Structures are given as C-alpha cells and as structure tokens.
Amino acid sequence: MNKRFSKILRTILILVITGVLIFFAFQGIELDELIQDLSEANYWWVLWTVLLGWFAYVARGLRWLILIDAMGYKANTWRSIHAVSIGYFTNLLVPRAGEIARCTSLSQTDDIPVDKLFGTVIVERVIDFIILGLFILTALIVQFDNIMGFFTAVGEARSTGSSGGGISTLLLYLAGIGVLVLVLFWVFRKRLMATVLFEKVRGFILGVFDGMKTVYKMKRKGAFIGYTLIIWFTYFGMIYYNFFSLPNFDVLGIGDGITMTVIGGLGMVVPSQGGIGSYHLAVSYGMTVLGSSYGLEDILNKQSGLTYATLVHTSQTLMSLVAGSIALFALYLARTRKNRSSE
C-alpha cells in the first residue's frame, strides 16, 4: 500500500511541477500571435525533423540489440525498435515509466529477463549523459557567453542575459549545497550505510559498472558508436532544421543549434510530464538569450522562442504517439502469435 501511495504521490508531484512550468512558460504570451506564427510555419521542414525523430528510435533499437547480444541474448530487430517506441509513448502518459514499459514489452515477446534488459537501459542512459556532457562542453567552447547567459536568465528569472550575478549566485548555492551534503554524509555515514536506501543506491551503482562491462564485451563496438552518433545527430537535426520552419529563425547557425540542443536537453531532464512546460520554458529562455546576444530582441524573444518550442515539442510528441500506437499493435500481434504457437 505504501509503495502504491508513493507512486501516486510521485505522479501527482510531477503533474503539479508540469502545471507550474506551463504557467511560467506561457505567462505573458500572446496566444493569438503564437497560433498565427504556427500557421505560417513551413511544415516540410517540420516533417523532415519528425522523420529524424523516428530515425532516432530506429537507431536506439539497433543500438540496444548490440547490448543485448553482448549479454548472450537475441532479440528481433523490429520488436526492439517497437519496444523503444513504446517506452517513449508510455513516458507521455505515465511519468518516468517508459524504461519499465520498454523492457517489459521486449521481455514478453523475446523471453529476455526484464532485469537484464533494464541493466542495458541503464548503460544507455550513462552513455547518453556522457554525450550530453560532450555537447555541453562543445557549446561552452563555441558559445560560452550564450550558455552562461541562459543560466543567468534562469537564475534571475528574467529575460536578459546581461548580468552575471545570477550565475555566480547559482554556483555559490550549488557549491554550498554540495559541501553540506558531503559533511552530513561523513557525519552520519555509519547510519546511512546501514539503511536499505544506501544498499539500493550501492546496488544501482554496482549495476551500472556491471552494465558498463558489457560495452567492453561487445563484438560490434564500431556499430555501437555509429548508432550513438546517429542518435545525437538526429537530436541536433531536430533543433537545427526547425530553424528553417519559422520566419526569421534562419539567422541562427550550427553553433546556435548545438546551444539549443543542450538547453532543450536540460529542459527534458526536469521531472515534468513528457517535458511539457520544462522544455518550453528552457527553449524560450534560450531564444531570449540568443536574441539579446545578437541584438535581435525583436525577432528572438520569449514569444518567438515559445512558438519554436511548441512547434518542436508538439511535432515530436505527435510522432511518439503515432509510433507508440503502431508499436503497441505490432507487439500485441507478436505476443498473440507466440501464445498460439506455444499451445
């Protein structure tokens, strides 16, 4: 009962966070203007980015097969891709449940233990965080002022990147919290190490290391790296090519695309329902900073940034719903055939 209550409470908390983020994202926005701008978008470019989003699912499914093979199991290619689609589909409906749904779906059709599959997903997450870190590093190198301006804008909760006080204060707070956590852990380390939570965290970390070992056992390391690069190129492409879908956004270049990929990725990390609200708020702040940096405040501001974020997020969400629905039907047929053959 406590476990069920905890899940319900977590879901409610995420929905509340989502609602608050949506409120702040759309605060002061002219909805009529937003709808008008969306009606003037070039949807051929949007369609291309939707295809890129689906290619990312395919690449994820193919990359997953390599990790599964490294553990000594075999899975069907299309069922692996469909399971990935179901994971993203589920995340839109139930917060943070996508990984479980993805692993359960493939386990039911290909007889692979769920815990083994979940271990590979953890490995994927670690690798993707490393790649995101490389994107952040690249963005800091090529557009340091814009990245710092974004954090300043968020820290000061206003739409300018002109002052550096916000980021300094934010870093001081983070450093202080980090030191406090380390001190408390050291003081209460014996009690903490005896708790169930510590054992779970310890088990999780060990599981990550065990999972990372499978990377060294892979027979197709080159293909794994290739699929990883394809995944992140598609993420970048979904951001960059949508610059051409809206009027005036074509003034932005590849460096800006990298910056917005990082900012959008950070927005998706926030525990909101399918990135709703958090993505919109992050991207609108990012566009405001770019506008301020280039002296294009009339073109790139919170209003146009939110239009852009809405276009990108909505198109990818619709793709996830369609791909997920097809995947659910395909895996339902696969389970039905499997059950009939076993009778």
Question: Keywords for this structure?
Answer:
single chain; 343 residues; mainly alpha; 81% helix
Mean pLDDT: 81
Rg, Cα atoms, Å: 22 Å
Distance between the termini: 36 Å
What count of domains describes the coordinates? 1
Helix content: over 70%
Order of helices and strands: HHHHHHHHHHHHHH
Globular, elongated, flat, extended or rod-shaped: what is the shape?
Answer: globular
Total DSSP helices = 14
Structural class: mainly alpha
Q: Which parts are unreliable, with pLDDT below 50 for 5 consecutive residues or more? A: 158-167
Q: How is this structure best described in words?
A:
- The model is unreliable at 158-167 (pLDDT under 50).
- The longest helix is centred in the last third of the chain and has 41 residues, at 302-342.
- By secondary structure, this protein is mostly helical.
- It is built from 14 helices and no strands.
- The chain has one domain (52-342).
Describe the structure in brief.
81% of the residues lie in helices and 0% in strands. The protein is mainly α and 343 residues long.
